Amino acid sequence: MITVLVATDSQLLRQLLCDALNGRSGLSVVATAPDHPRALALTENLRPDVAIVNMGMPESLILVRALAGVHARVVSLGRCEEESVAVVEDGTLNDVIAAVHGAMHGAFTPTRSSDSELDHLTATERLVLRSVNEGHSNKEIAQELGVAVPTIKHHVHSLLTKLGVRRRGEAAAIYRRTRSESGRSTRPSPRWTVRPSSSRPS
Predict the structure, then answer these.
(1) pLDDT for 55-83, tens place per residue?
(2) Cys bridge to 124: 42, 98, 118, 157, which one at CB 3.0-4.6 A?
(3) For residue 164, is it left (φ>0), alpha (ψ between -120 and 50) or beta?
(4) pLDDT for 120-156, tens place per residue?
(5) Would you tell me the crossing angle of helices 138-145 and 149-163 to the nearest 10 degrees?
(6) Is 1 helix (H, G, I), strand (E, B) or coil?
């Protein structure tokens, strides 16, 4: 179970995210906070695995930097240029869930440049590809994300098509090559942004 804190000054958004995420895909919302001080205090006290921060909230950037100081994983709702932050600018609920899983498992690290072969994959497809690279079956990936096996099959088919390959091993090779090239880069790396997913929340 991945524990989550939601920080936003919108009471409606706090309630909606809490209701939508709690108990879904292995997530547990342990706290919500309406502002920077309470979010930081709750994070230091409860130590959630991931903090979701609405960048439209006052002092949101200060909060993101403070959370980094206590080694918290962060998913930002809205544009954020800070390092080690998974950014969801205009995605679906599935993209937020994928970003939380990606932040938890270290899948969303900076990429070498904006023309990466993986840039046109959705957040969920990136997460599925990471699991494919690790040798997980569709059933295992479905259990990890808390979705049905046919949903994972759809994501695998979609990412194979976008990458222009036919086999999972070929897709995994592209993933490893892209990660390797990212590691060799010495140029500043932009934050990876979750692109809107074409699929609806399941």
Answers:
(1) 999 889 889 888 877 777 999 998 887 77
(2) 98
(3) left
(4) 777 678 878 888 999 999 998 888 777 789 989 998 9
(5) 110
(6) coil
